[in-house]
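Explain my protein.
***
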Amino acid sequence: MNNFFKGIMILFCFFLAGINMYAQVLDKSWKSITEIKDESWFASAEAKAVAENVLLYQRHIGGWPKNTQMQKPLSDAQKKELLALKTSTEGCTTDNGGTVQEMLFLSKINKQQPDVSYQKAFLSGLDYLLKAQYDNGGWPQFFPLKKGYYTHITYNDDSMVNILNVLKEVKDKTDFYSIKASDDLVAKAKIAFDKGIDCIVKSQYKQNGVLTAWCAQHDEVTLLPAKARAYELPSLSGKESAKITLLLMAVENPSKEIIAAVEAAVAWFEKVKITGLREERVVDAKGKITDKKMIADANAPALWARFMELDDNRPFFCDRDGIKKYSLAEIGDERRNGYSWYTNEPKEVLKAYDKWKKKLSTELNSIKKKVAKAPKDEYNIVVAQDGSGDYTSIQDAIYNSPSFPYKRVLITVKNGVYHEKVRIPEWNTKISLIGESKEKTTITYDDYFGKINLGRNSTFLTPTVLVEGNDFKATNLTIKNTAGPVGQAIALSVVADRVVVSNCVISGNQDTLYTSGEGFKQYFKDCFIEGTVDFIFGNATAVFDNCDIHSKSNSYLTAASTPESSKYGFVFMNCKLTADEKATEVYLGRPWRINAKTVYLNCEMGSHIRKEGWNNWSKTEAEKASFYAEYNCSGPGFQPENRVAWSHQLKKSEAKKYTLENILGDSNSKSNSNWYSNFK
């Protein structure tokens, strides 16, 4: 055989070997294929063919079904059927690796064969994960919700941990995924991750007052352990708790609550580990398990039961009849051999614990040194999430600001989404909170009345930002309450005097902005303020100058509770009143207390403002005691001839009295008489 034919034969052999290699790949499980480490395979035609299947299986909502071998070839009829199912949401899930595995596959093939369709599908999957999250931070097994135990917060088979690991890579902007999210999605991922971790910490089970571990499912409302299938009873899980603990250990700069959760879980794993016992499996010629037995073995590595009693950690087992048994031998063949009753996963937690503890100690020492040193200039403080400033948390900066300072304390906040509740206490006066940019410096939290649930005054405990210190100033910030339309949920609460908020976005739904303090004066300049019901409310004297006041639903814009002794209440100057398309009938205000005062001067009113303008909140006495007025306004929403008879249209001579000096000026203090004129 000449050299030419030898070369041809060699190439042919390589070709056959390649075909055989790819065939072996496609014979693996779908999960195994998504986890292939050989990047070159994702550059192959076979990988591209699989990717086309992955795109077909994805629903328009962004999710995928579970337990689907997506590498299997599809007939034309099957492809047509999948295209018809695109608009269906049935079966979309994160259970058994659903959605997160497909996203991983798309990321890997996009790295080798970049394609816009892969990128769009991945980002749609990410959006699906974000939409599926409960307000309390947990995730159901299926989204949209499927009736039954599927609505429970699902830790089973590491479903929620898998989601949070995706979000962690996205929020940290790592290179793990080749497809990059927008800044907006990154910000949303960070919020969702923090909420998820908060849910995990809050759902950790207390046994006789002592923190232990987690159940496979937790009730989506009470967060208590919950039942799933007949043989999956409420219990402490040796399996699911392992991955949860490892996730908590991966959180950077963990809170004291996270640290306590990890410490408690590790102590519990040590307490409930099983020694001297080995699982022996009998396998047939096809590799199928035909029997499982627990054998005494003094040298066996530690094991943990998957299900343990909530009160005493005793391992138990269940058949499909749902009756607890305390020996695996008592369970029928089908469930005994077809389910994982023991696990060794917690060994990874115990292995990682010492390293985590050492790293934590190093970080804490670093923080202590930084706090001990304090900023170089305590009157000029920088907050930056990347560690380049004096603090990474706004609240830490405030905690370390001088009390009752002689001069103004400037706290500059670098761009980032700060998911924290911020409080400026009464003793932290003269603080200026200065964002790097209104669009990219965001403070956000999601407390609401029902979540706080401490009685009838729970509303006042919901603010994302609470200002109690006088002479506070904020500029170039976005302040949000992201709880959604779930009732009262304050974004910004101002219970202080001589406060200036300029060039800020204040966003929420019901009760967005609370302006309070009898006799207190506050000034909002060039701000965007949005909400639904009574989204500007309170008893302070507050001026809104050149602000965009945006209604998100049919409701009431203001709910003033002005004291009878106050000459002015809410005054809107040169503002623009806008609305979402669905908001077509909005009142200018209603009286929270009967002496409410609200005036609009030179404002442009959209068509969403009701022709009658004002509502008495079923308080007829308010029609005499309140003062609701307008002057020289414009736009389709300004219909003075149709306003309620008990409201007022100011005369020019009356309107002249509404100046900043008259409303906000402090005649008792020369140094503070024009406090509203300096925005920083």
